[in-house]
């Protein structure tokens, strides 16, 4: 389980790191959705670092990251709904032609974040696979 979570999460964070390749977006709508995704990434990293032993487990910190992640996931649909574009975006146009599926994938992240039990290191580890899997399920289809 631990290895699995690390692999899934590692892959998600690795592909996340490539976002800066094309420079910074200037369109405000694109900036806002990328900022939301950075929040998603940061909070996932907090949980992932604890799960992977890179950071000491701290139940209050894990609970805060979980709550922030679930709240950010709940905001994905609103932030992506306007079909704005920018030379630096990594959002694929298929988001808006498959909108219901995109929203379902955002909901899947929210469900996975809410389901994570932040009270112990083992339960955080157990919850990371579903979270990492939901990043990958969306990025593999809707992110360049
Ligand atoms: C419902 C789809 C969806 C889900 C779920 C999702 N992402 Fe994203 N993510 C995107 C899209 C689309 C982009 C590209 C946005 C753009 O460039 O306009 C993106 C971009 C990012 C970026 C780059 C932000 C930047 O600096 O431009 C990071 C980091 C990121 N996602 C992390 C994550 C992590 C970690 C998860 C899981 C916990 C996750 N995402 C879940 C769709 C999603």
Name a few traits of the molecule.
binds heme C, Four Helix Bundle (Hemerythrin (Met), subunit A), elongated, 6 helices, 144 residues, single chain, mainly alpha
Brief account:
The chain has one domain (2-142): Up-down Bundle (Four Helix Bundle (Hemerythrin (Met), subunit A)), CATH 1.20.120. Helices cover 73% and strands 0% of the residues. The protein is built from 6 helices and no strands.
Characterization of this structure:
The chain contains six helices and no strands. Helix 2 (28-51) packs antiparallel against helix 6 (121-142). 73% of the residues lie in helices and 0% in strands. The chain is mostly helical and 144 residues long. The chain has a single domain (2-142), classed as Cytochrome c/b562 (Four Helix Bundle (Hemerythrin (Met), subunit A), Up-down Bundle), CATH 1.20.120.10. It is elongated and about 40 Å long. The protein has helices at residues 2-17, 28-51, 59-80, 94-97, 99-115, 121-142. It starts with a helix and ends with a helix. Heme C binds next to helix 1, helix 2, helix 5 and helix 6.
Tell me the domain tally. Answer: 1
**Tell me about the biggest sheet?**
none
In total, the number of strands is 0
Into which percent range does the helicity of residues fall? over 70%
Q: Nearest-angstrom radius of gyration?
A: 15 Å
Which architecture per CATH? Up-down Bundle
- Summed up, the helix count is 6
- What is the CATH homologous superfamily assignment? Cytochrome c/b562
The CATH topology is given as: Four Helix Bundle (Hemerythrin (Met), subunit A)
Rounded to the nearest angstrom, the distance between the terminal CA atoms is 29 Å
Order of helices and strands: HHHHHH
């Amino acid at each position: 389980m631990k290895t699995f979570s690390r692999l899934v999460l590692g892959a998600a964070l690795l592909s996340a790191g490539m976002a800066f390749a094309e420079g910074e977006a200037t369109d405000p709508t694109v900036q806002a959705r990328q900022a939301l995704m950075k929040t998603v990434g940061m909070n996932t990293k907090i949980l992932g670092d604890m799960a992977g032993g890179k950071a000491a487990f701290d139940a209050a910190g894990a609970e805060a990251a979980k709550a922030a992640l679930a709240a950010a996931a709940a905001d994905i649909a609103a932030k992506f709904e306007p079909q704005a574009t920018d030379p630096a975006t990594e959002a694929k146009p298929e988001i808006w032609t498959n909108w219901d599926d995109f929203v379902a994938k955002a909901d899947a992240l929210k469900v996975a974040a809410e389901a994570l039990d932040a009270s112990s290191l083992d339960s955080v580890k157990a919850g990371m696979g579903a979270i990492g899997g939901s990043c990958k399920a969306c990025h593999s289809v809707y992110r360049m």
